[in-house]
Amino acid sequence: MKNIRNFCIIAHIDHGKSTLADRLLDVTNTIAEREKQAQVLDDMDLERERGITIKSHAIQMDYERNGEKYVLNLIDTPGHVDFSYEVSRSIAACEGALLIVDATQGIQAQTISNLYLAIENDLEIIPILNKIDLPNANPEDVKDQIVDLLGCEAEDILAASGKTGEGVPEILEAIVDRIPAPEGDADAPLQALIFDSEFNSFRGIITYIRVLNGEIRKGDLVKFVNTGKEYYADEIGVLRLQQEARPVLKTGDVGYVISGIKTADEVKVGDTITQKSNPCEKAIEGFEEVKPMVFAGVYPIDSEDYEDLRAAMEKLKLNDAS
Q1: Is residue 213 included in any domain, yes or no?
Q2: pTM of the predicted structure, to 2 decimals
Q3: Most-buried pick from 11, 115, 154, 206 (CB within 10 A)?
Q4: Domain-terminating residue out of 178, 206, 223
Q5: How far is CA 66 from the centre of its chain?
Q6: Could you tell me if 143 and 170 are in contact, meaning their C-beta atoms sit under 8 angstroms apart?
Q7: pLDDT by residue (tens digit) across 82-102?
Q8: What is the DSSP string of 42-80?
């Protein structure tokens, strides 16, 4: 557990978050040469078309320094205001955050909004000045903005370019040195936070979790605390570029659980997973019902298709609560 680092990335839209995440994956050799493409973590066509992150993602990287191996879990987050609850649950799964600020634009509104969420959760903040390679970059002025906002020293701010890869090795070193390892009781009852989920037509709902205490093993009978539902953990594993099955997830780990759940309302972001036979005393704080931010009137051409449309919308809500 002492060699695990769980962190997220906080940035305003279009400040180069996904490009910098690509460089982190490159330097840690997380993606093979044949799998490389722009915005690796943005797997929706619209995300790549517009160059923005709509959905949060998580990926595990292996990093070695001075002969010691570390596991870095990056939980990518969207930068748009519509996804504030989703961002808050991703932040709750981390001990640290990379605060990325565009050297040409300076600090923007959404940066501040998500930064305050991270500070409320006592995350270690690593400020990064991105896009320093651009001719219109204004690094000194933007550094002053960051110092005023965080109250940090100017020397604590890292300079980087997601485009050229400059400064990325220093970011990885800062993640290891400045972000604390997870805390938790490996011998306590299982207590895992659901920070995201998605629907797979073959396997049902895939639940993304961060284990805060205890451990979860394949085949365990687990309970979703706030919904009261119970399921067997048919498969568990870690989140590489693709999901990789593992026999156990321990305290501090980030991974996924597949239980063959077909009903969308039974998995809620922010809920707590525990073991049926040895439950935790209380749920993880901060759970709330997600409030949709997008309102639209959608009607099937044929009224007989109404139930199919409703089921489809419930599955979509799993992966996009807005």
Answers
A1: yes
A2: 0.83
A3: 11
A4: 178
A5: 28
A6: no
A7: 566 777 888 889 999 999 998
A8: --SHHHHHHT---S-EEEEEEEEETTEEEEEEEEE---S
